[in-house]
Amino acid sequence: MYSPDHKLFNGCPKGIVVRYGALANAHFSLFNEQMAAAITGNGRYFIQKKANYVEKKLQSLIQSKKEYLLYADTDSIYFHIEPFMLKYQEQNPDLTISQYVDWANSFEEKVIQPTIQQTVDDFAHELNAYNKDVIKSEREIISDSALWVAKKKYLARVRDSEGTRYPDDNPYMKAMGLEIAKSSTSVWAKKKLKESINKILDGTEEELSNWIKELKIDFVKADLNDLAQVGAASNLDYDLSDKGVPFGSRAAICHNIYIKEYNKDETYSPIQAGEKTKRLFLIEPNPLKTNIIAYSSDNFVNEIKDYIDYDTNFEKSFLNPLQLMVECLNWDLNKKTESLDDW
Fold this sequence. Notes:
The protein has eleven helices and nine strands. By secondary structure, the protein is α+β, with helices and mostly antiparallel strands. Strand 3 (141-150) and strand 4 form a beta hairpin.
């Protein structure tokens, strides 16, 4: 896909590359806010022009009340070819998924790429580009099902990515900007959120809710370290009696207080500011005197295993992120699962 992050001047001395981000930095020697704005503006204009050209081309082939363009952002566009694919499938009903993907790729090469090249040619002419050959836009993924949650946040079942073909029975589940891709998400939640993609794309709200109920059995049997979310507290210089102490800082401070009060500081090292830790929610009352605890040693779970708040951990690490993934479908998983049995 096209990105406006190109060499600014083809005539720059060898080895010098100017990027638009640097031009917008007031401390950069070549700082030029208008030039930076022009580069991002040109990129935006190109993306919009490309989207319009593709839409117009596809509509000219098979007119559709539903727009072909699904989504566009700063460096890419996503469009569907459903009417074309349905027609091809009717004529060729017994092909494999991979064979249908072959046809979709061929369609892109024969129809979409020439249209994008026309966009590049017109764009370069309008802006009197020095060298239009550096303006490129290439196909990234072919997906048979996708869901856009919000800007820069989507799910896609990818069958081909930039020429890499995935087996029919093992497609690549792409999750952009969602909890699945975040380092703070627990090991268990990442695995189950990834498993949920097929269920979201192919199933119903009821089916997903029933699956969630079944997961509770697996959740309570999982290794506690796999259930813990990951995070770091940049500042531990707080008094816990004060209001507004960040929960990550409070969790780490409570850990340090606990190991000191119970003479466990030789077994467990105090957590330092900025150190990555695991976090679990606890039921109260408990000896740690907190509803959330951070720890850096996996063995620390032996201190808290009898006080795990499974409901809150399940909700915070898994159910809430999953709800965000399906809100655009108007699915309410919290309502559907509120009557679940106790742990």
